[in-house]
């Protein structure tokens, strides 16, 4: 057993020459510094990414709020419904007036008070109708 112990001591002494605790400590300290620096850099990058994400999301939120808000140039739902109803009433009133005018004209034509005049040569149907309306309103 003493031979093995002597060999072990010899081996330890040869290994002790290769070991440098100061150098090992410096290597470990340097590794720790690199780890701290990379951790700090990583945290800074994460913080920047988080800040950019917040900024982008707040811009998107603001754009969504603006697009969800009715522009001042667009009437409210109630005002739009009122305008549509008013236009419908106007359309119905105009249709009734046209129908009454056509009935009056038809009865006058039937009684012989008024007779149909065909459009003049080269006169469009729209021009002819305008002329008839002018005559009817006088």
Features of the shown structure:
mainly alpha; 82% helix; single chain; rod-shaped; 4 helices; 138 residues
Summarize the structure.
With 138 residues, the chain is an all-alpha fold. The protein has helices at 2-18, 21-68, 77-111, 125-137.
What does this protein look like?
With 138 residues, the chain is an all-alpha fold. It has a domain at 1-69. Helix content is 82%, strand content 0%. It has helices at 2-18, 21-68, 77-111, 125-137. The longest helix has 48 residues, at 21-68. The chain is rod-shaped and about 150 Å long. It starts with a helix and ends with a helix. 0% of the residues are buried.
List the topology elements.
Layout (H helix, E strand, L loop, with lengths): L1 H17 L2 H48 L8 H35 L13 H13 L1
Largest sheet: none
Radius of gyration: 49 Å
Mean pLDDT: 87
Cα shape: rod-shaped
